[in-house]
Structures are given as structure tokens and as C-alpha cells.
Amino acid sequence: MPAPPDISASEWILMEALWKSSPQTASELTKTLRPSMHWAENTVRTLLTRLLQKGALSTGENTSGTRTYRPAVKRETCVRAEGESFMTRIFGGAAKPLLVHFAQNNKLTADEVRELKRILDQSLKS
After folding, report:
1. Measured distance CA(76)–CA(78) in Å, rounded
2. C-alpha dihedral over 52, 55, 57, 61, to 10 degrees?
3. Each residue of 39-70: pLDDT tens digit?
4. What mean pLDDT is predicted for residues 27-48?
5. What is the CATH number assigned to the segment(s) 9-71?
6. Domain boundaries in the chain?
7. For an engineered disulfide with 56, which of 9, 46, 51, 110 has Cβ 3.0 to 4.6 Å away?
8. pTM for this model (two decimals)
């Protein structure tokens, strides 16, 4: 299985829109993202081209023959790769300092602490 594509922060925003709803045309994506990102359609098309070259997107056509875009990779796959990359770059690949950092620097609710404990206990069993 090929490695997930390396997606930039701007590309990630576009991918999130497509993971949420696809297929979409470049114009539809521009309308979706313009309120928050203020991107012109040329910017969206540039990002789409980059994501196509990286293998993150596939294309098709809608009923009027306009090119549409859809993710070629699952969000979970990209999140896992980004998480591993972050852990390697910042924490030398070690999970413990990562978990300690986030537990000490974030206000976790009691439910979040219980869920984290459950996950850690489950990982000990497997």
C-alpha cells in the first residue's frame, strides 16, 4: 500500500471540505471555502492540481460534464500519517512524552480522562 500523501495546511482545508461532501466541482469548493478562507477559484484550482499530483484526489464528471473531485484517500489514513509524523518530529517517536504533554497542557474533562484510561487499559491487554 502506498504511503499517504504529504498534505499541506491549505490542502488539508480543501480535503476536509471534500471528506465532508463529495464529489464537488472547483466552483462548488470555492463557494464552500470562500466565507472562511477568502480564496479565489484560481487558488482552489491550484490546490486541487497539487492534490491530484500527490494522488490524494480522483476526478470524475457530473451530469453537465464538469470535472468533479473526490478524495482518493481516507481521512483516517491521513490523520494517522500526520499523527505519526508529528510524534516523530516533535517527540522522537515516543508516545509517552506526547501523552504527558497533552495531558498536562490541556484541560481534560472527567469523561475524556476516563476514555483515555480505557484506551490505555485496552492497549495493555492487546
Report:
1. 5
2. 70
3. 999 999 999 999 999 999 999 999 999 999 99
4. 97
5. 1.10.10.10
6. 9-71, 94-125
7. 51
8. 0.82
